[in-house]
Each structure stands twice: as structure tokens, then as C-alpha cells.
Amino acid sequence: GLVMTEQILTAYRNHALQMESNIPLPLITKRGPCFESSHEAGYWCTSSDHCTELLRCRKLRSGIHVWSIKVVIACESTWLGVAATSEKIDRSAWLGSSAGGWVYGSTGCVCHAHRGPYQVTHPPFAEGCVVKFRLDLTRRGQLYIALRDSDEYMLFDNMLMQDGKNVGRSFVPAISLKAPGAVQFLGFHPSSSQEELPMNSDGYPQRPPMRDGLSTDSSLDDVNSSSSSSSSSSSSSSTSS
Predict the structure, then answer these.
(1) I need a labelling partner for 199 at 20 to 30 A (CA). Which of 1, 162, 166, 235 fits?
(2) Which residues contact 174 (CB under 8 A, 6 or more apart)?
(3) What is the pLDDT of residue 148?
(4) Which among 47, 52, 55 is positioned nearest to 30, based on CA atoms?
(5) Residue 108: which of 241, 237, 234 has the closest Cα?
(6) 149: pLDDT strictly greater than 80
């Protein structure tokens, strides 16, 4: 049938309101986590220098979170990791230089706030690789990776700690690339727990009650799906932040 004049005017009015509020239009209808610049699950860097891109998703404050990122096009030192949302992140700079950045490089190096170790202590990754991350925020804050279903490697420990106290940081997945680097966020795994856990008197998230040896905690994946909390795997190596 014919479109009524009132419907057309309403559409234009809504469009004008969206532009006026500075909300990117693709985010109005886009579902699921996406990179802030591309508004898509994929991101292609055009900068000649390393810059930082954050994933737009719910902040990861407690529980265990698992996600995967695929390196679509490799660049000189591809860096993948997380950013603390409480810290000011310079998007035009390398994430490893930031106090709010914890990154894992394609050469196997890891870095946080310009601190290494820079020697190769973890497996390198290349174009076409899928890197699986596991962020454990149930106590001190630990970040693990696994490549091609291999054993897990601990990249960082004590990510929630500062001067011996739990400071309750929240995180989002983040990357640092230069042209022609490109990556694809493949989503949060069903084993991710997105539930907000209450803090105890020591500043640690309270663990859920146990029943018959299993946690009664129900988990909520960021956008994709829900499942139970993931169990921890043993690490192969560790690096303190």
C-alpha cells in the first residue's frame, strides 16, 4: 500500500533526533558487541602508527569471561588484550603504553604500562590465527590465552590489585593495530559469566553458594547466550602486571 505522509514525517523526525543526540546510526540497530569505530564485529586499521580500538560491550567487572578474536590481516606487531574502563585510554597510541592496557603481541611478548617482559615467553600468532582469551575476575584478576585448542598460558596476574588491595577494575576487550591490520571479534563463549557478583569485606567478589559440588551461579553472556560459569584451567606460565 501507499506510505502515509505522517509516516514519512515521523521517520524524518526520528532520524533528526538521532543525529542531534550524536548517536551513531549503525548502533541503533546493530546487535551484539562491536568495535567502537567500525560499529561492526570486524575492524580494519588504516593508521600508519599503532592505535587502539575498544570493543563496545558490557563492562566485565566480575566472574569469568571467554571470547575469541581472529587475526584476519596481520600487521607489524598485532596486539590483542583488554583495557580498563576506569583508565583514560589514548586511542591514537599503542595500548601497551597505557596504565589501563594489558596486551599480548603477535611475537609472543606481553606488555602493561610500558612494562614487559618483552622477551618471547608465550606462543606467537600470525595471520589467520584465532586467539581465545579467558579473563578471570573471581579473585585477583588473571588473563589467559589459548591458540588452536592448545594449553592455556597465563599472560597477566593481579590485574585487580593495587598496593595490595583489590581496586575493582572493569575491563573490555581491546586491540592495538597499524595498517593494514584487521581483526574479527568472534563473540563471547557460552561459558562466559557476565553476572555482577557482590563484594565481600576484603574487596573480593563473593563466590556463589555450592550445591552438590557445582556452583549455583547462573551466567549471562554479554549478548550472545547464557550458560554456567567456566571452570579454570591450569596455566603454563605467568607474568605479574
Answers:
(1) 235
(2) 52, 53, 54, 55, 80, 81, 82, 83, 89, 95, 101, 103
(3) 84
(4) 55
(5) 237
(6) no
pLDDT score recorded for residue 110:
96
For residue 14, the model assigns a pLDDT of 44
pTM: 0.69
C-alpha cell at 120: 618471547
Grid cell of 115 as nine digits: 612494562
Beta bridge partners of 130: 70
Q: Which of the 8 DSSP states describes residue 95?
A: G
Q: Which residues pair with 219 in a beta bridge?
A: none
Check if the beta carbon of residue 100 is closer than 8 Å to that of residue 89.
Answer: yes
Alpha carbon of residue 83 to chain centroid: 7
What digits encode the pLDDT tens for the residues 162-182?
999 999 999 999 999 999 999
**Which residues face 24 on adjacent strands?**
none
> SS3 for 114?
coil
What are all long-range contacts of 17-21, with beta carbons under 8 Å and residues at least 24 apart?
A: none
- The beta strand positions in the chain, using DSSP E, are 34-35, 42-44, 51-56, 64-73, 79-84, 101-105, 110-112, 130-136, 142-147, 153-156, 161-162, 165-166, 171-177, 182-188, 210-211, 214-215
